[in-house]
Design goal:
single chain, Cytochrome p450, 15 helices, 9% strand
Length: 378
């Protein structure tokens, strides 16, 4: 597609709607910066297929900054941005390190584990749950809901997605009621204070924000760790290079993000009018996505893109998106990935796959890019 049809109109068989996909690095960057496309579903022209397929009951968790345009986007992002500054994230380093040690100790005692279940998932979900002030013991519930909501519907059936969304909403409504009675020093209480100021965060925006932070706060890091370890196991000379020189971890994490991006495509944008883009006309109301994974393998931007090189420089990948919607939690994901992978290599000198590589399976859907399981032995 990148070579022969860099902007192509495909058809989503699950939602029964057309979707345009851009695959070249420059096109993806230009697309996400183009203000003619909206992230706000309310701005889609009436009668368009995309609008007809929306789930009204899910709107309460879709009023977050990733589904907004300026000025709403600017207001919403400003409210939470202070919790994710590089300085605030660095303060989390001791806690992230402690959780990593705990999880690795438990995994090592078992000798063989699914690295996703035993390590890559519990680490970031514990960190974001503690940061938000959400009970960590509910993490398996969050995982089930998240997996259902972000995966494509089966045979176009939106029922399971709708049910998981409603359960998520009801959970947070109950949690917010308890927290109003007993405020704490956490991000959840801070966001509630913003809601109570009235003009900064509506009740609907509050629940949407919690949904986004909880989902995005762990899903990307799960796949950064899983895909990163998979890439190292596929390239043992690079794994030994990193083990011998842990100082390479920052550039190694960037290459893991580029090589097997945890998020495969941008979230949807819609044409607010008939829009000419790269010589083609995208009709009003039709959706468009940029393939982050394809952009990160564009040979025009990355020499030898299929080569996994933990010291690649420069490495201006778009794994975290680009422009005003650049991932707010990128500093946290990078910190978690760096600590997790360096300590894993240090503590597990005999780390190896516990199955044949051909047995590994990638998750369904084109939004999240990650393995279903990653069985490893120590």
């Amino acid at each position: 597609m990148r070579q022969e049809a860099p902007l192509v109109r495909l058809f989503d068989p699950n939602l029964n709607i057309p979707v345009w996909v851009a695959t070249r690095y420059k096109d993806v960057v230009d697309l996400v910066r183009d203000p003619r496309f909206t992230k706000d579903m309310r701005k889609i022209p009436d009668g368009s297929p995309s609008k007809l397929r929306r789930i009204d009951s899910m709107e309460v968790i879709n009023r977050h900054m990733l589904s907004s345009d300026p000025p709403d986007h600017t207001r919403l992002r400003t409210i939470v941005s202070k919790a994710f500054t590089p300085r605030r994230v660095e303060e989390l380093r001791p806690r992230v390190t402690a959780i990593t040690y705990e999880l690795l100790d438990a995994a090592k005692a078992r000798g063989e584990v699914d690295l996703l279940d035993a390590f890559a998932f519990p680490l970031p979900i514990t960190v974001i749950a503690e940061l938000l002030g959400v009970p960590v013991e509910d993490r398996e519930q969050f995982r089930d809901w998240t997996t259902t909501i972000i995966n494509p519907p089966v045979n176009g059936d939106l029922g399971p997605i709708q049910q998981a969304g409603m359960q998520f909403i009801q959970y947070f409504q109950g949690l917010l009621a308890r927290r109003r009675a007993e405020p704490r020093d956490d991000l959840l209480t801070a966001l509630m204070a913003a809601e109570e100021q009235g003009d900064r965060l509506s009740p609907q925006e509050l629940i949407s924000m919690l949904f986004l932070l909880l989902v995005a706060g762990h899903e990307t890091t799960v796949n950064l760790i899983g895909n990163g370890v998979w890439a190292l196991l596929q390239n043992p000379e690079q794994m030994e290079r990193l083990r011998a020189n842990p100082a390479l971890i920052e550039s190694a994490v960037e290459e893991m993000l580029r090589y097997r991006s945890p998020v495969e495509t941008t979230t949807q944008r819609w044409a607010t009018q008939d829009i000419e883009f790269r010589g083609q006309v995208i009709p009003a109301g039709e959706s468009v996505q940029g393939s982050l994974l394809a952009a990160n393998h564009d040979p025009e931007q990355f020499p030898e893109p299929e080569k996994f090189d933990i010291a690649r420089e420069p490495n201006r990948h778009v794994a975290f998106g680009f422009g005003i919607h650049f991932c707010l939690g990128a500093p946290l994901a990078r910190l978690e990935g760096a600590i997790a992978i360096n300590l894993l290599l240090e503590r597990m000198p005999r780390l190896r796959l516990a199955v044949e590589p051909s047995q590994l399976r990638w998750r369904d859907g084109i939004l999240v890019h990650g393995l279903q399981r990653l069985p490893v032995a120590f």
